[in-house]
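Quick one:
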Amino acid sequence: MGNDIDTHLGKRLRRRRRLLGLTQQQLAGAVGVRFQQIQKYECGANRISAARLWQLSEALEVPVGYFYDGLSDVRREAANESEGGEMFARKETLDLIRAYYLLGERPRRRLLDLAKSLNGGGPEHADA
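Output:
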C-alpha cells in the first residue's frame, strides 16, 4: 500500500507543477533539491518526507492536504485488485466476456454449465 500512496502523491505533485507551468528544474530549485529528485517523487520511486511535502506545498501554493485528495479512491482500487479485480484487466477475460454475451440465452446457459462442471461445480449451480 505504501507504494500506492507514494505514486498518488507523485501524480498530484506532477499535476500541480504542470498546472502552474513549472519545470522540474524550477520546482527543484524552489525546494532545494536536484530535478532528478523531483522526477523520482513524481513517479513514486522515492518517498516524500513530511518536511519536503511541506516545502512542496509552499512552492506549489497548495495546502498539504491537496496531495492526499482522492487517496481513499486509490485504496479502494488496490483492495479490489487484491480481491481478483486484476483478472478483469486481462485481455482474454474481456474477450471471453464479450463472446459470452454475443451468444443467445440457451447457448450461454450451456456454456456456463460446462465451465462450472470443468471447475468442479455441476449444472445445479447454474442459477447462482
